[in-house]
Structures are given as C-alpha cells and as structure tokens.
Amino acid sequence: xxxxxxxxxxxxxxxxxSLVAAQQRxxxxxxxxxxxxxxxxxxxxxxxxLEYEQRNLSKSARIRDVARNQxxxxxxxxxRTLYLKEAK
Length: 88
Prior knowledge:
This protein is mostly helical. It has helices at 3-57, 60-69. The longest helix is centred in the middle third of the chain and has 55 residues, at 3-57. It starts with a helix and ends in a 19-residue tail after the last helix.
C-alpha cells in the first residue's frame, strides 16, 4: 500500500469516528431536550394548579368561613357596638 492510500484510509476512519461521535452527541441532546420539555410541561401544570388554588383561597366566601370557624369572628351588630362619649 502506498502512502496516499494509507492517508486516505486514515482520513476515512477519522471521518467515520467523527460521524459516530456526532450522532451520539445528537442523541444525548435529544434526550436532554425531551427531559426538559417534560419538566416544562410538569411545571406548567403545577403553575396552573397553584393559580386555581390561589383563586379558591382568595374568594370572599372562603375568607368568611375561615374568619367564622377558625378565628371565631362574628359580624358586627348594633347590640354589640359600644359607643363612647367624649368627656368635656
């Protein structure tokens, strides 16, 4: 085998190994992309769920229930109102 044939053969092997390495990198990047997209979907779902919970917790009926049941608060009434007069 002459020198040109050996050079071409070595270049062919280098190109083939480079192609295999590039395909392997592309596969790894594709798997990483799929993983990131699945994570993005999950985070979007969690965000929507949290927004829904926030809307439910901020409703006035919910606030009223918590005030009555947990804090034992009652609405104001004229019978319970104390009026103070300023001493002159």
